[in-house]
Amino acid sequence: MEVYNGKNKRIKRIFREDGKTVIIPMDHGVTSGPISGLVKMQDIINKLINGGADAVVLHKGIAKNVDTGRLGLIIHVSASTNVGPDPNWKVRACNVKEAIQLGCDAVSIHINVGAAHEPEMLMDLGNLADECDAWGIPLLAMMYPRGPKIISEHSLEVVAHAARLGAELGADVIKTNYTGDPESFRKVVEGCPVPVVIAGGPKVDTTRSFLEMVYNAVKAGCAGVSIGRNVFQHRDPVAMTKALVGIVHEDMSVNQALKILGE
Questions:
Q1: pTM for this structure?
Q2: Range of the domain at 189
Q3: Average pLDDT of span 17-32
């Protein structure tokens, strides 16, 4: 018999009954400032609602000033800027109590595995996992292989290690890189005891290749997507969101999703 505790109830506001989710992260303003697509935050959130997204990732200051409507709200606790001395060193800028006061359904943290300050970030992850368990709040860990020993941020070995590391230290959901093909990514999913969602990476030039990545990842067993720039910087964020929802939740083909986008 399933126990419907606080954490389980909250995670159901992010994941649908099929066990999958379409999350749109929009925490980029801390790292890069008001980039294209994230100037008028309420406008883009309204488009994501219309497109059928399941949840958004926001920093606490933005969450105070927008209405996320029916979307699940994930408060991001990590911060660094791309003009700082070490952009890969993510520090905590929010605690779980603050996130709860803002009405969060989950919190997220960013860990760069292999970076110079990996030990400090892993300590933050472990401590945050304890806080989340105490408050009944789901924890999404963004686990990225980034550092001097990382030859490829998309190789099976380092992605699988990063995903497993996040789960080992207490995360309830893992976000990480796609490894490039369904066969290798299936091994990432199999080696991680909690749901895995894929990141979108840099904005792509080819819509088909982007949607094929999402389609193949879902077929490999991933629990959905957490994709930002390829949605909020798309010429039609509503249609792109609908296309992702179609692939993740409705078993659409890439060609069917492209038709939503008029391509």
A1: 0.96
A2: 6-260
A3: 98
Q: What is the rounded distance in angstroms from the CA atom of residue 253 to the CA atom of residue 62?
A: 35
Whole-angstrom Cα distance, residue 262 to residue 236? 10
171's CB contacts (< 8 A; 6+ apart) are 109, 125, 129, 139, 140, 141, 143, 194
CATH number at residue 58: 3.20.20.70
* Residues that are catalytic: 27, 144, 175
Residue labelled with tokens 């996130």: 99
State the pLDDT at residue 201.
75
- Side chain identity at residue 193, one-letter code: P
Our count of domains for the chain comes to: 1
- Distance from C-alpha of 159 to C-alpha of 192, rounded to nearest angstrom: 11
Distance CA 34, CA 71 (A): 22
How far is the C-alpha of 197 from the C-alpha of 98, rounded, in Å?
25
pLDDT tens for 199-231 read 997 667 799 999 999 999 999 999 999 999 999
In the numeric block, which tokens belong to residue 10?
């909250």
Q: What are phi and psi of 217, to 5 degrees?
A: -65, -40
